[in-house]
Each structure stands twice: as C-alpha cells, then as structure tokens.
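Pasting two entries for a bug report.
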Amino acid sequence: MKTGMKTPLNLEFMKKTLTSPLAVLLLVTAVSCSKDDDNPKPTEPTAEEMLAGYWTGTYNLGGDELDRNYAMLFRTDGTVRVYNLNTATDTLDISPASTADGTYQVLGNTVTTSHTYSYYPSVYTTEADTDENFEFMQGNMSAYVEGVDISATFFLNKGADLTEDIN
C-alpha cells in the first residue's frame, strides 16, 4: 500500500469543501428569486385614447358669433368623422351629405384634421388646441371651396351623448 493516500479522509474533505459553498449558492439564488408582479402598473392612455369619442360645440362662418352646431367623432385608429349638425339633433337624424370623413393627428395638445364632405371635393382642415385632460378644444377650420377661401373658428366639448359607435 502506498503511503500518503488516505482515500476516505480526502473524499470526506472534498464533500465538505464542495457541498458547503454549493448550499450557500443555492440558498442565495432561491432567496433572490421572486414572483412576477401580479399587479403591473397601469399604462398612461395615449393621446388618441384620450381624444377618442364625440366632441360637440359650435363654429362661426365669417362672423364673430359661434352660432352653428358642429361635432366630431374621433376614433383611436386615427380617423375622424365631422358633422354639420345645423339640420339635425343627433347623428341618426343627420343627412350623409352633412358628414365628412378624414384623418387626424395629435402632437402634444394640438389636434389637426383633414376631412372631405361627400358633396364637396374640397379638403377641409382644422387645427385646435386641447386642454391637458382632452376635455375641450378650440381652433380654426379652413378650406378652399369652389374658388373661395373659407375659414371659421370653433369650440368643442368632449363627452356628448350622440348615437354612433366610436369604434
């Protein structure tokens, strides 16, 4: 038998040397793991989500008095429908000729639209500023119709109870 070979003692020493650090490593790893948060923080709504819905109000056409009824339906997909409500009380009563369809963009609290009525091939544009909560807006509308520049100012409030679905 060779001297210096103490197999049982070396094996026992190696077990203790390797097992203790491994146990500590497993304990640290288990303690540092945690479940995913079951209640994630809600995300802030996008400007399009805050803008979505019916907005009603008035506009003027060449005068100082905001005396014409007006509405816009903003959808979250970037489309808008504009209503000239001078001949109707809600969107079910309105003639299709009194509606315009188009698109909108939001940059900060400024909303711009581009839309066309079925009876005029002209493109109408609007630019309006909203409050920070997207509850009211005030702006200007312009178009070039049959050789005439048209401009108007308007004011709209959000949350009207009109009948068309916003989606």
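Entry 2 (this is the one that rendered wrong in the viewer):
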Amino acid sequence: MTSGKLTKRWAIWGGLCASTFWAVEAGAATPAPELGIRWLPSCEELPSGGLDPEVIARTRCGIVTVPLDHLNPRLGTLDLDITRVAARRPVQRAGAIFTNPGGPGSNGNDIFTVLLASIWKGYIDKSEGEPYRHLTDAYDLIGITPRGQSSAPDSQLVCQSDEAIVAQGDITEDRSPANLAAIQHNAAVLARGCASQPLAPYINTDQTARDMEFVRAQLNENKLNYFGNSYGTWLGAWYGGLFPQHVGRMVLDSNVDWTSTFQDASLSAAPEKERVFNRFVAEHAASHPQVYRMGSDPAAVREIFLQLLPRVRAALRSDNEFYSSPAHLMAARVLSDWWRVSPGITDTELKSRAQAHGFSPDNAVDQHARRAFTDLLTATRQAAPWNGIAPGPLKLTPADSVRSTVLCNDSRTSDETFWIEKEDQYATHYPVAGSFLQARHCAHWSGTPASAVPFQNLSRVDSIVMIQAEYDDQTPAAQAFKAFASLPNTHMTLLKDTYRHGVSFAGISACVNRQVGEYLAYGRKPERFSTCDASD
C-alpha cells in the first residue's frame, strides 16, 4: 500500500501518457466508443530524459476502452491509458508481463513500465543478467493506468464536496474531545465526498482485475504473466482468484495479506513501525553508544523518544525516513531540549546553534544529524494535515481519490466506535507509529464493499513467487506470511534483516533479482521458502 516514503519513491514515475474519454451512459447522444485498444502515433508525454532511448523506441502508448462495469456491460464504457514496451527481438517473442507499481492510487504506471524495462536491460551485463537478457529480448511489458486515474478529466474520479475539511491537531498527541470531533468530521466528509461520485461504485480491485483480463484477451495473450508491488500484490491475487486458468508466472513483491481486509492492513502498520524503530534505531544506537550518545540500553533509547516534546514526536513520526533513523532521534532530542530551555528561540537561532553543535564524534553521523535537525524543524513548522488533505472544501487529486475509494470499496470495515477505540489504543501501545489508520474513513462509507479477495481459486494457479523484506512498515512480513501459508503453491523469498518496501530491482540484492529473473524468464521456481541477504 502507498503512503509516506513509498509515495515519494514512486513519484518520479508521475505523469500519464495518453488522453482518454469516458462515456457513462449507453444512451448518450454521441455513439458509445467501441471496446478495444487504440494505439497512438507516439508517447508524447513520456519524459524526454532519464530513460533509455532504445527502450523508448520500443514503447507504444494507447487508449483501451473497457466496460464501465464488466458485470453489466450495457452501462457504458471507460477509457484507460495503456503502455507497452515491446520485446527487443520480436522473432523470439514469448509473451507479455503485466505490471503494477502499487497503490491504490499510485501515479505513473506508464513510466514504471518503461523504467522497469530499462532496469532489466541494464541487468544484462550483471552476474544475475542472463535471464534478463531473455526477458528483454522475448517479453513485452504492459502497464495499465488504474481506472479513475486516466489523463482525460472526463475519465477521472475526483472526490469533492462543498463540505469542508476542518483544521485538526495531531491525531496521536491530541486526543481531546474537540480534536476527536474534528477527526470524525473529516473522516465523514472524505467518505461522503468519494462515495457520492457517480464513478465511485466502479472503482475497485475487482473491476481493475477484469480490466487486466480484458486487455489480455485484446492482446491475444494465452497467459497473463505479472509483476506487482505492494497494492499490486492484492490486485494480482484478485486477478488470479478470478481467472486462475489464465495466470502464467506471477511475482508479488511486498505483500498485502490477500486473505484479510484493508482494515486489517491498516491496523498492521503500527506494530511493524515499532519493530522497525526498535531494530534500526533503539538497538542500533545502543550498540554504538560512543557514536550516537544515547546510551547502551535499547529501552533507554526508546525512552528518549517518549520524552520528546509532543510537536517534535509528531514531526519524527511524520516520515518513515525520520523515525527509522538514529540521527533523526539525536536531532529530535536536541531540538526538544533547546525549546524547553528557550521557548522563544527563533528558527534562525536554532539552525545556527545546530550547525555549531557536536552531535557525534563520527563525522558522517554528525553531518546526518545536522540535516535531520533541519528536517524536523521544518516538519514542526509545516505539520502535514490529516490524511494529507488541506482544510477547506474537499477536492482530491484522482490518485488520492482512487486510493480513498478502493480502500473502502474492496472490503468491509467496522464502525466509528471501533476506530476511535483503536486510535486510543494505538496512541498508548504504539507511540512511535501513532494513531493514523489509513482506512478509518471507511466507517462512514455508504457504498457496498466487496466481500473479499477471491483467493480460494488461487490454489489452481501453478505457482506464485512472493518477495518480502523482513522489515516493511507498509506491508509487514507478518501479514505476508499469512498469505504465504494460505496456499500450497506459493514460494517466498525473504530478504533478511533489511528494512525495505519494494525489494526486487531496488539495487540491494542480486540474490533476489536472480530468483525473480529465473522465474519470470524460464519458470524456474525457488524453494518453497528461502532467504537472501542484502549483501548477496
């Protein structure tokens, strides 16, 4: 699932390459568009730089017109953007691999597809490169823009309302009745602003999976091979549950538990963030007391976080890269101490003092802590609004609209009382992670959610290769293991003692890349369970 650091990581792939048109009503005055794919003369909106020119030359962009509702095609049509990077050697072509970078609501499936093709081509000369030569030469890569995020305004889902999002305090630090009322109000405004849109009932993973099947048939592919990351694992499992007979080779990286719900996925993030903090901040700093100067007891390091000023704690937990960094905790302690002694000190004075302060005898850590000090000071002055939504009349981007809608349309959730109780519990039990729960607005959802991922049929798929980091605060390994254990045909590779969301092709493990490449290229399955090290 996409949040925090993941959004930043994939943001470079923003921008969509084709314009689209959506006709909602079959009885409209203009003729309904014909179903199918229309390839465009060029991909004019792909970035001009930063991508392999040879890969760009093999790339085509188009518009695929699908039924608005695959289960009731008479309702009208919907246009999606599609990108295809053709196999480098057409005479050797063996099939196509569909891709999804995550989400829900992740931008840039087109750029992701082109970038993935470029990465694979770049691996050819590496030690794990032989299967990537075959993938580059023999397989097309296919990217489809999620429904609701087309580049044409008429095809976009935009959650909006005249109701206003109101300003609120930090959801973890301020559990006062007034702030709770603001949180409940905002959650309800978000839910109503999305559920009331005419397109909203059709923005769900079931329809998106059927879009993939429609495109597979249009391309005359016998099998749908697939690489999905984060939410893309949920989508891949949903597709496999609907169409197991058409699944070829499927790699799911950084896994959502497809046997569960988005409510459970929301609740699972905070315990994992505590694990990440304990392993990579408390234990690491305590193992190097001379470098980090926070003592040699992990519990004492954790106590430093708990004793920070509330606004500094909120800033530290606001970004995955902040709370998982010992240098940021060092900087947070200094910032809190200085504010306690001098509440009226200016930002200019704080920055000047930080530049002169000796955070650590280790030069690299010392410089990192100075940068971290500036990060945290900025975060305290520019506190992020709830769910990233600015106060005022509600109007979200298509990406945020799709994310907010899919979370509620895909699975059932509990009522408002449940979420308030969980927020209170999480503020106490998981203070590092805090009380923000991604799907809590679904308590006010008026639509009819799907029952569950149809994962039972996944047992009919030949094999599914799962890739997972041991530490992942967006899709925790504990949830991935539940999905892994639910089926006999899954194969998991765990990247040991590594904090990462999105493992494959991240440049951190040739071992993982070798296993993924061998499987996608030749169908060679790894062991039922295996491990890799980041240094492999």
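Dev reply: Rendering is fixed now. As a check, the viewer should reflect this: The chain has 19 helices and twelve strands.
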